User: Fold these one by one.
Assistant:
Number 1:
Amino acid sequence: MTEQTKLSVLCSLFTWTQRSKSAAKKRAKFRKFLDAFCTDHNFFPAVRLLLPNLDRERGSYGLKESVLATSLIDALGISRDSPDALRLLNWRKGGAATGPTAGNFALVASEVLQRRQGTASGGLTIRELNELLDRLASAENRAEKILVLSTLIQKTNAQEMKWIIMIILKDLKLGISEKSIFHEFHPDAEDLFNVTCDLKLVCEKLRDRNQRHKRQDIEVGKAVRPQLAKRVANATEAWKKGDPLAPLLFNIVVEGLTGLMRTAISKNMFSSYQVGSQKEDVNILQYADDTLFFGAVTTDNVRVLKSILRCFEMVSGLKINYAKSHCGCIGKSEGWCRDAAQFLNYSQLDIPFSYLGIPVGTSSKSWSVWQPIIRKFEAKLAKWKQRCLSMGGRITLINSGLTALPIYLLSFFRIPKKVVHKIVSIQRNFLWGGGIEANKIPWVNWDTVCLPKNKGGLGIKDLIKFNEALLGKWGWELVNNQNQLWARILLSKYGGWNALLFGRNSGDLSHWWKDLETVFQQQDSNSINNNLRWKVGNGVKIRFWKDKWRDDDLTLQDKYPTLYQMSTQQNSPINLMGHFVEDRWDWKINWRRNFFDHQIDMVAAFMAEIDDVHIHRSSMDILTWRDDPSGSYSTKSVYNLLKDAGNIVTEDSASKIIWNLKIPPRAIAFSWRLFQNRLPTKANLRRRMSAMSCSLAPKLGVYGYLSPYLISVRSLNLIPSIHRVTTDHLLQPKLWSRIMHVSVSFMGRMWLLSANLMVTAFKFIKMELKYISSQGKCHHNVTQYGFLFVFPWVFHLPWNFIDHSEYAHAMSEIIIQNVLVDRCILDGEMLVWDTSLKPKAARDGLDSDRQLCCILWLDVAFDILYFGDTSLIHQTLKERHEILCKIVRPVKGRLEILVPNAGINSHISSGEPCWSFIAHNVDEVERFFKETIENRDEGIVLKDHSSKWEPSDRSGKWLKLKPEYIQAGSDLDVLIIGGYYGSGRRGGEVAQFLVGLAERPSPNTHPKQFISFCRVGTGLSDDELDAVVTKLKPYFRKYEYPKKRPPSFYQVTNHSKERPDVWVDSPEKSIILSITSDIRTIESEVFSAPYSLRFPRIDRVRYDKAWYECLDVQSFIELVHSSNGTTQRDTEYGSKQDSKPKRSKSSTRGEKKNLSIVPSHLIQTDVSSIKGGSLIFSNMMFCILKNLVSYYLIKLSDEVFEEMSNAREVLLAKANSPFNYMKAGS
């Protein structure tokens, strides 16, 4: 059935999912799709279309947006210079003429196709679509691809073609992750895919979605997803995360406060606050990162408390946050409290106050406590009042709206009736009218509405019962945690569990405790006590006569009242009703007198009953909840129990059928009203004393809502005569039984119908559904490359599980000869090795590949996952490294292993930085990271030696720290000179900027030339970006390359990656941005400036600066040269940076240049800031005579010196030198 499913069904699923805002509803929709249309358990044809980016059975299409645009133009047979063709080719560009679809290729293509395709679906099935996509992927030339696209256009409409294009581009933008789709398909699908990377295999192995699959280990020949490294901002953070004790460090240190307080109390220096009749001491409480001190209100206590805090600061090194600390007093004057707070350097705490959302010092019945919650509840429903929600949607929203009521507040206080009435009024008005601002007709009693669905209600929560169920847990916890401090306080203050059950008349009771007593003692809540059962342990907590600990739901007092009256141990626990004789319990019950003859049999039965009970010395008594299988108290089971306690309504089979139907919620809600006889018919409205004409009934939606059912019933021929009944007569009371019979027959039999009949029956309802519009987006994870080794063949598989067999010839022989086992999987990196100059060849940001001499492929293995016939992923990293060293024989420059103190580290010379080592403190991590920056390496990875290998895991066992994660030492003020159109959410609008640096002007003048510097777009919020674009939009001019040249005051390269979509037509109209970046700079052929930035991002918009105050290129070059090729002024790369870095400012306009009397070509190059490299140019003299721009001459001389140790001289010739060669001699 899966392959025969129409493409239109799948496209409807995509459209609904993209518009929906609720992640839960999206997941439910996918689950229903799989349940309804994949009944033959053949999931792969559909799942490969749901997750096109994970499908590797079908090859690459070789069609990205630009190529796909030209292919569609040819498939449509339109001219390349026609408006629609230009629209496709320039899909990214925005403007008034392009509309809101700009930047989204699929929407632009759909807009073009809509004028050439029909609106009706072509009937293409999932099987036919997959066959055409297979042909498209296997097409060997462009003509075959165009033929397939033409076929697709002929067999689909524009809406279907839009989703096909997104499948081809492998980006559906549904706003739901692959993790969620896997979870709805099968709970084990993601785990299986992580270790196989085979979507087809996953669908075949998990054909039964109700059966769990045993977790599969990795296999030789199957690609696996990598273990991922979590990003950290600096070395200090990385070291803390890598420490297994890091989460406990704070708790361990703060425990010192408790120790100091304990010492002060033992020496009678601090007086605790004593609670209740048993004088329970309370002095310090700690919750998360909060600490609360309690004590007698005395001056000595205040002084001691200050001493404790000061000692803690000195010993621990931590500082008290006095700005967030408060001091409050009860029973003293306001002046005394103010003086105490000032002495402690705290702010004074006003009473009443709120702590963790709980009001303290005010009555829970006060309207001010609940008013913010009511407002929040109103606001959540009010924003939907103008929406055309069906009744089914309103029911769902009311239940979800209850989350606006903080559960912890309902768990602590008994909600006042006036608050309940207010909330119920809001719910009722919203349910029956869609708004909350006016009263509506309550067609059904609210008590009925709150009944469970299987008893004729709508399942809306009864707030009073829900509140009582939450409060009931206090009694449960009070019994099971009698040794906890809070339970001891309640016992001392109020009497504990017994007082909760039977109440007490003396003493000062708080409103909170009175409310708890009311909950446990009121008639309806006796059902809570009736469902509590004791499981006998040592008998310490259980009262022998008065508690329920037998299996017959009766206390011994109720079952044997005569014996209870004769007992002298009426309130004694079980453990005092006997004693142990060796390991056997012997009952010892004391009676007031001897028994009469007619009482002997009763006593014998009584003793026989209690002799069956086993008393255990070592186990504790446990209170259990009868209505839950686990025996634990659950709010859900108690709520259901309370609802059933005072309710005589039995289960309604018709209601149960209605709520189990697989039909839309609005249809279920209509059916419920139909059975309740609460539709707004003429007769019902007359009973409500509302005069209304029959002609208004259709306007109320009665017939409009009912007609789909009538049409469906007619199409199924359940009652052939139904079409002869008119609208006015349909809703008369005389035909009530007939309509009910029709509805029951139709709904009761619909799942017995064939698939075709079922679709016919509900096609009208589906057409009427309306959903909230939402723009979704999809995120992509960047993966790193590795390689996979299988003897005697070698497969090079990157982490995006594509087989790169083209690399096999370079490395297979080396691996086969030097790996000492037949079967293994190595985790590693493939690098390019330059044997002449540097260990690793680097591109240095150049776009054109440089021809490097002596190039070799190098495989670096840093982990082993499989060995022989055994998976090693469950062993620790340390153990895996030991195995790796044993089975791999390194070959210098070809095959290396990266492990601490071995492998590639054994080749390094003295003084060279190592590749891997075991760090013992954060200073070593910072030093190693600083060396990677100076060597211009990518970054460092920190791994927990005790960690196991988990595919696709980013839990923090591996951490990565790169220079781009660190705030640059200087923020650079640059000028916007151009803009680039965005895509997706920012489609059709400028989303990135081309920024430039100024050419240093003459004194007392403004810059006249600006040099392109970099491209930047991240860092601003949507509002900030919109403000910048709005301000510059009047001055944007489209760049029509190559017809027009860039503005004369901009110096650019016209590189394809530099070329903007729009120019700012005048620098005077532009805006300065303050940008930051990775601390390293790069040389780039893309932009005109000699250096550019890695990963630039906007820090803020400098509206306070004029256009001519941007950074000049000469100042930037000086900054780079003075900091060894970086923009960092601070040398502590790995440490935490200041939140406000230093800013590089442009030179002052009045600054004068220091002119030298020595000609520039005779000045010796300043190499004081250049780090020395190798000795290959030792004792040589270089004279560079090439005619180059000045900063390229400087760079060339720097590179030469970098490889010199004893250089005599590096001379730069005049720029107009007639020589055109370079000579070097010793």
Note: The two ends are 83 Å apart (CA to CA).
Number 2:
Amino acid sequence: MSAKITQNSTRLTYNGAQEMDDILKPIKTTRTNIGDFESLSINEGPQGTHDSTFSRRPGKDFNEIEEIPVEETHTGITELRIDQSKVSDRKSNEGTVGLELSIGDVGVADDISVAQRTFSSPHDVLDSLKAKPDPHTLTAALEYLRDTCSNVDGFNVKVSGPKAAQIVNQLVTEILPNYWEFFDLVQRASDGTQAKTNLLEVLRSVSGIGALTASLRASTAAFHEGTNNVATRATIECLAQVMATKQFVLQIMETILEFHGTDTQQRMLWQEFVSIVVGGKVLSTTGEAVFATKCLDPERDKDAWVADGRQYARWIGGNVTFILLHMSPADERQWSMVSQLVKRCTRMAHSDLFIAELLNSLILHDQTMWKSLQLLFARFSKPDQQLLFKFILNCSCNLYLQTTSHRVSTETSPNLRVSGVASLISGFTNISEHLKDYLVNWICSAGEGLGMDIDARRASIAAVAGNEDVLFAILEKSLTAFGDKLHIQHSPLMQQEALAQVILLATGYLHKLKSSTISSLSRSSVYIQMVSNRLASSLPRAQILGMIVGTAISRLIESPEKALKFDTEEMETSEAKWFMNLQYVNDEAGSLQALKLGVPLASRPLSKKRKIVVPGSQEIPATNISSRIISIEELSDAESDDGLVPYQKPDEDPQDSDDDPTLTNRVRPVARVYIKDLVADLRSNDKPEVVELALKTAPGLIRRKANFGTELSESIDRLAAALLNVQEGMSKRENQDSRLQSMIACIVAHPARMAPWFINMYFEGDLSQAQRASVTTAVGLSARELGGFDDASLEGALPRSQNTFASKRLPPKLEAIYSPQTSHLSTVARQIEHSTLQPMALAAADKLTGPDILKVRTFSSRMEVERKGKEKAQERKRRIPKDLHKLLSESFYLELCGRLDIVISGSRHQSSTLMTSLLDPPLLRLVLQTHTIILSTLGPHAPQLPLLTRETLLMLTSLHNISTLALDPAVLPALLNLLLLILDLNIAAGVNSEERLITEFGTQVAELVSWAAALIDRGTVAGPSTSSEGDDGDMPWTVVAAGIQVKWMEVGRKFQGRMLGLGPQDF
């Protein structure tokens, strides 16, 4: 019996109702499975006619369809036999190669029998793969190869060898590009077909990963040469799915140990595997392929993780954790291999995220993980143990401890998170004794423990609070450094404050264990020399820190009458009392379970929309409260007009112009009048129009609420975090400017509180580069506004509306990318640079144009210039707060300069993702320009000028020692401008400041000036302009370097004249 399908109707017609029911019975039982692969619908007509319609792909021409024989088997069950068609490659519309299969290509039902080929040797498999196999032959070949994966004596496709290499190469280069999409269809069509799973299992080996990486590298190279290689996406997806398990590394390790007999083979294969997976070959190859071909969307495609360095580091951490939890403690070969893997992981990119994954697993599994880590540490050498322990210290403090500003932290009560981190550190120090010695050095070393915040110091000292010897070592080492004259003179002030905190914390714990030790220490030469050197320092801040430490230690061992006491105002401040209360902090090494209370940084989702988590803040749901005022009219009842008054024609409303009223959105965003509603609107990421309106109204609302009630002060932290979190519409320049002005308004409203908050978020927050640039710009411009420079000095800094004709402007999205834009800070910094160099240029011009007697101007013009200058000075004086210099110095400049110096110093000791992003040259240039702007705002008459000069010179000295940063074309001009401004301010401050440049800071200034002079001699460092922007108004960096030399020579000449007793006219 047979049936024909005509070309016109594509209808399958059968004669005989009873016979047709028998024929279609097995087909109906498998109808669902077949429909998943090719939409096959079998419907029964109204008059006993049965229809069968084949749903085929568009563009497929069936010129002739043969008969489909229907036979009856010996079991009496009717069987439908479908002839297989040939698999042919085709070019799709996008230029890719795919497969076009008809319904007969695959038998997907259990009731439909398809004869499959069987293989007896790998040679037959290789021949069939080279012959472009049909789907059933390929499925059988993959099943045979999967079965060989467990062979110990015979052929094993996972064991390195000539035949296995040829098969793997054939699978990767020929089968994978042509059959990858087909495997997905088969996988969905039938649960019994495991072709894709078998392929992934066969390629899950060292040779398989190497072949996939090499194929991907070749396809990327072909793309660069202009060839549209279609295998890229399939290769990346296959590679990601082969590796996308937590037991992947363990499986590779077990395969190497089980199927490769000799130690040499095992060692070479493992080294090759570590080099490919951890050494960066996979990550760099996939990253280049995704970036070049755009074949995957990193945000939407789940297989794009293999090209993301952050997710890749976490994946490796998860695999190492799985190994540590499932390995046998007695297997020395596995432990040796794991130790080699972990050593390589600590040197990879994003190693901090790898350590974070280990720490999270440690907290989850606790005791099991402790034993594994002890066994792992035992197989490391001492340098490797210290390196891994350093990563653990830094990551644990950054992950689980709240990062606060060094100057505003006032909390000394017990903290569960501090106790949890202390327990973590204590567990590692108990593994090996020399790790305790390393912890002592880490706590007292600049750029490491001293670069952390107060909670990190509390946790690290609490970890050894019960060990008297370790506490005494910490106290003795920190006291020696704290009282050293060179340390007082050349160390950044923030590091000296951190060292004072270490001394007070260690003193308190040691006094509880053995008070006699503190008594003997207070009478030692180290303590006495520390107090005397601190009091003899010329820096007021150094003196205050010495008085605080001396008084605090004296109060522990002496009665109140005999204790050391300094009757100064500085000792009665809240900051001094907080320092002395550190001796009474009582943190204990608690349980690791305390760290589960919050979400660590490493477990936050990676997304483009990063959120800033503020302690104590909570989400405020968006509300639709309208603040519009409804006008009420009183209608008269007079019957003077009995007629009907016609309605006026309403104004046209573009938002209500749609013919379909159901499509009109009548809930329009309105401008908010309360801060809490503004915060809610800024968090409405799914409503772009609401966010855009909130950004436009935020600056004005914040400034109105600044001096009105406590509404702004109660919500300003949440408001600042919401402004940093805004992602909707940030491609528009107008929205960027509105956010910037809103942050400026926040800082101006509460400068002492918000300036340290923004600076802390800049260095510690999980921000993008654009967000960090906005933060540092807001800090610099808000300082200018507080100093009264928000009129003429900022003209041109903030963009104005452009009146360019519409046809000559790009669309908003393209304009933000291609239109030349100048940074706000760059504009202000250029003005400062020109104003600093202008007097020298005018003086040089005067010498060329003759004596001053020949330069005449009218008396009225001179009076007009003087009058305008006095008016500007008086206007600025009215805007300046009383404590402006102290505010800008402590809350702005010292906070920013000290944190930057710590980052620069710490970059030599540790390398992490955060360090790399903070020292990015364009971003570092903005930070240096912010320093320049704040310093120029303070001016030459600031009482803190000696301290500001000292901190600036220390930071510049550290920076110029890192040649890769200092000689960068973006960084060098900003560095030289800051140095020139420091010299100019001290010269303008008077004779005492000039002499201080020689007597106190002469060594540092001379080093920097000679370095700048050497750059001019070389002349090939940073190119002709001061920045990478290439603006017409930029000053060549060689001119700035020459100006530095002229200023320094002027200072030296005047100092020598005064030493010789010459008058100013003789200089």
Note: The beta strands are 40-44, 50-54, 70-72, 78-80, 89-91, 97-99.
Number 3:
Amino acid sequence: MPGIPREKIDEVQAAADIVEVASDYVGRLKKSGSRYMALCPFHDEDTPSFSLSPDKNLYYCFGCLEEHEPVWTERGLVPIGQVQVGDGVLGLDGKVETITHKTVKEGPLLALEFGAVRRDPLLLTPDHTCVAVRRRDALRAVPMLGRSGCNIRFHGDRRAYRKTRPCAIQEIEAQNIRAGDYFLFPVTSKKERHNAPLPAPGPVVPSPEREGGESVPAGATPARTKGPARTKGPAPTTFEALPVNEATARLYGLWLAEGSCYRGGVRWSFHRDETELADFVVETLAQHFGLDASRRPHASRHPRPGPGRLEVTCSNTPLSYLLPHWFGKGAKRKQLPFQALRWTQSMQRALLRGYFEGGGKYVGPRQWQAVCISRHLAQGLFALAIQARRSVSMGKNKRRTAAGNREWAVSLRKNESVEGFFHALDGQAYYWVKASRPRLLGEERTVVDLSATGSHTFTTKIGAVHNCQAGGSIFTLVQEMEGVPFPEAVEQLADRFGVDLPQSSRGGGPERAKREPLHHALRFAARFFYHQLTTTEPGERALAYLTDERGLTEETIKAFGLGYAPGRWDALTTAAESEQIAPETLEEAGLAIARKGGDGYYDRYRGRVVFPLFSRVGRVLGFAGRVFEGAEGPAIGSDFDPPKYINSPETPVYHKKDVLYGLHQAKNALRNEEEALLVEGYTDVIALHQAGVQHAVATCGTALTAEQAKMLGRYAERVTLLYDADEAGTRAALRGMDRVLEAGLGAYAARLPEGRDPDDFVREEGAGRFRRFLRKHRQGIAAFRRAQAERAGAFESPEDRTRTMRAVAESLALVPDEMARENQVRAASDALDMYEDLLRKAVEEARSEDQRKKKRRKRAPRPEAPADGKESPGDEPQQPEEETPAPLPQERNLLRLLLEHGRPMVELILGNMALTEFTEGPARELAGHFLQMYREGEVAPRRVLEGDFGPALQRLAAAVLTDEHEPSENWRDRDINVPRLNQETRKAAASSMRLLKLRRVDAELEKVKTAQFQSAPTEEDEREAQQHVMRLQQLRQQIQRGEFFDWDEGEETA
């Protein structure tokens, strides 16, 4: 199949509006300069980090660091606020990455403390993604770590003989970091290291050697500076670069500790007992720079060294420029160049030796410490020690110097510790830094985030971090949110924004190929019905009904795509033949019905006004047909009372629980109003929109479902239900308010005067009075329930009041957010004249009871087969087979999760369990097929249900899906929904895996004990058995703590 032409892709991108498309997924967008901001749809957050650029049709999501937090760039340690797009930064793999995006905003801050970096927390937003290893994973993977009660102990002697286990580096939001998790600081690999000289920042102008001029060693070139030519004296030695070798690296370390500048020269100041260091400086300057230096106890000119000081001076203007350029000038501005992190370890250790010789002291045991007043220098030495594979820590001292400067201490240790150690993962070495529990700061500050190429990470003073990396074009957004490949994303946007694509370029997978003919048939039907309404003689009566009786304008009719279905039995079926649309396709799309006996098809909608049902992006999914007086054809007869509405059946493209009528037209109004008005009828929605109340939507012939409530939450903060004033309407409103509360939205309801509906009210009273009526009469859940009870006379006795209050508590227990639930409790206590504490207690009891019910439903036993034991009709006779063990309840639960969620659960379950841990038989066989599908690249649970792996596994799959899905309390009102993979589902999987692993360990323990009892073991056999039992008991304790290990090493998993 040919691809989509490049010019067509460009045309779609130019026609598409990313703000409109993104609003389908992120809901409310807020203008921020030339951009739009919203909450990121890819992760949970409280502050907007999702940024849209309408002029470029691009989006990006950022988590941020405080603007003064330093990051490692090619310019050294630079505050993140000063980093620019195009700068190079140190990534997680130790390589240099390029900054591609940068954003600045205001946001809340969280402080992450580390044992190896005292009193200098990492400040970042709670939603920023950190690269870290969980405490439990570190205990499992790092041979040097062990437990001591609740604490972690470090055993350096284990490195030599304990096997390293694989470990996953996780992307964890800062707010979810826990004490004991480890941050990773990358160590540069050998192939990335080099000892290139540090070049001069500007061009060097060479000059010929002159008689009497200075001798020029290798690596130094004589040159003269710009300006008048010198007329006497030797030309000064100018350097193209500072050489890098062990001697000069040590010299640079001494400069960082004791160096300073004076006009035209540099000096090193030592204690009078440090003559060896002074001699080293003089010799190195002569040997590697060709410069003369003098050593003297006292300076004859200002500044004078203090008593007992020894000074080495060297008068050379180029050197007095290059050393401060690379290593800083002045005690508060000393720094370490980024290039030093790429030197070989011998050079790095030489620099550290020089620095600690000049400014450090031995504090023992096997530990050296140096103090400086430059924060960047301390952080640079911390990073350099890591690259030199020296265990290091740093921190801010509590005391200040006499001049009021803050002191920073850097300590080198001979031995590693639990706070910091070296360990490699997947061939990349890291320094592991142990985190403490994060703490929120009660203020907002300017925060900045970066995005880099390659690993999409950048390294802070403490380790590597990055953001969620959600970003791209409008096509990427549709791909990520809809889970479709690029061609289908282009096709969806082309259909939505009216760009014609060549039919030969349309593609997609099997599901796409199956749905596309249905969408084509539905689009044709919508055009056919609209044409019949607006241009044909039979449609004139339907048009008169809409315009005269319903008061709709032509613009409204066109906006909602209203149409007319002719009264003939096969009007649509016959017209579709000219478009090569098969009758079978019309039937699958819900547009036609097969005649009894298989003799042809007839139209589902005949002699009715037709309402197209749109998806939120504007695709036709189905139709609803309404009878009206004066319609033609066989739909109306003297002996037949037809139903008022005929709704589209469930089809592969239409699921009524997911669709809200009018949402496509109401999206912008929902965002502006921050409220959704939910009514019962299609005509109510249309009349309200025409009157200017454009945030109205309706369900499609069903009570409000959880999916519909969640969809409204993308656009609005609250929902007002406006149903009929009769008893049925009140019950529907109460059920709908529960669904709205469960979705985390504000729930309100209002009652129109008896006998009036929104359509009549807004046409007779106008939009202004309608809005005022809603503001005055809408009520929250407690006030609405109380009013309903009072009208029914069921709020008079104590028992009645208790019943109503308990019902309110059960509704409030559905609110997921704790703060929102507390506010609802306060409002409800006022409405019910009830003490807050008493209502709050009732709400918590209702939540606890709901959780217990869910647990009981999960544990409820289910029959394995029909009670009568009869075979189903059509079953083939089975030959007697050897009896195999039935799957355990925990295995049935895991198999259900694999069938429901596919790939994510394969990775979670079969990534932590070997196949041999399943009971031998169908459970193990079915898990094996999932593992095979995972290896082949496509996990398709439907293949099991379609019988691709045999009827036995097909029956098992159907059984486990059935026994775990119970009808909910709202079975009559909404379809059963398969939940998305969330934390609760993961907990269920983890619980089942833990029980299965414990069962296997217990069986092995029993086996060992039985063998001991039944035999007469030797002393050696008894000792080995006891050791085996101890290992099994330790393994059992680890499994109980949630540390899952595959039983058989080498057993293949996902």
Note: The chain has 32 helices and 44 strands.
